[in-house]
Amino acid sequence: MNDPFYAHYDALRVRRHEHGIVEIVMSGEGTNKSGLATADASMHRELAEIWRDVDRDPDARVAVIRGEGKGFSAGGDLALVEDMAMHFDVRARVWREARDLVYNVINCSKPIVSAMHGPAVGAGLVAGLLADISIAAKSARIIDGHTRLGVAAGDHAAIVWPLLCGMAKAKYYLLLCEPVSGEEAERIGLVSLAVDENDLLPKAFEVAKRLANGSQTALRWTKYALNNWLRQAGPNFDTSLALEFMGFAGPDVHEGVKSLRERRAPEFPGGDPF
């Protein structure tokens, strides 16, 4: 059961630890046959909202976000993607949540630590890579799957990948949907640290404890100043997100969803859409 301050969350499990550490768990129970946390409508909404509550939680000093079971996060729920493709009101609602998720992580005054293992995809990956300290298991598989689905790489991709790993690497992985191992992600600067999977949670909580025991004004103001680099990239993010959601109203996303359901390569139609 969640801590009373976070009692209204269902898809996310929240519990407190010593030193003001708040642990946020994306539960994989019942969300995906593979046992991974899928960003269905409830999970997507809660991932966008949780950072406002962490920010105003008087007892929280640092947040740790992790997945459970076989991985960190499985990405978007295909039923939700189909709803977005078919219904304007759903598309508009999820666009707002996707926008809020990015800006709420950036603007949360408390430091955020992510602990990523297994597959890390979709809305969970947004929080995972925008976290102030991102820690991945060496065997983790980080994938931005937007172009494979037939939509532009929106979410967090345009705002933070080029800043973290450079434009050349960002284009390679985002355009081709190539998976990045945790070990490679550390090498190119996409994550802060990569460790053996058995060491992942101990390391995440060690870092969280150090942050929680530090000067809170110094840490929060340093985060605020550093995140101005991301705020400057806000127009890039807004453009990428708008283009992503324009894609959900287009024809390619239907083939993307169909090919994922049929476990085959997509066959997108040719031609210049512009």
TrEMBL record:
Keyword line: Isomerase
InterPro entries linked: ClpP/crotonase-like_dom_sf, Enoyl-CoA_hyd/isom_CS, Enoyl-CoA_hydra/iso, Enoyl-CoA_hydra_C
Q: Which Pfam families match?
A: ECH_1
Tell me the PROSITE patterns matching this sequence.
Answer: ENOYL_COA_HYDRATASE
Gene3D superfamilies in the cross-refs: 2-enoyl-CoA Hydratase, Chain A, domain 1, Lyase 2-enoyl-coa Hydratase, Chain A, domain 2
Task: Give one GO term, molecular function aspect.
Answer: isomerase activity
Write out the similarity annotation: Belongs to the enoyl-CoA hydratase/isomerase family.
Write down what this protein is called: Enoyl-CoA hydratase/isomerase family protein
What's the source species for this entry? Paraburkholderia silviterrae
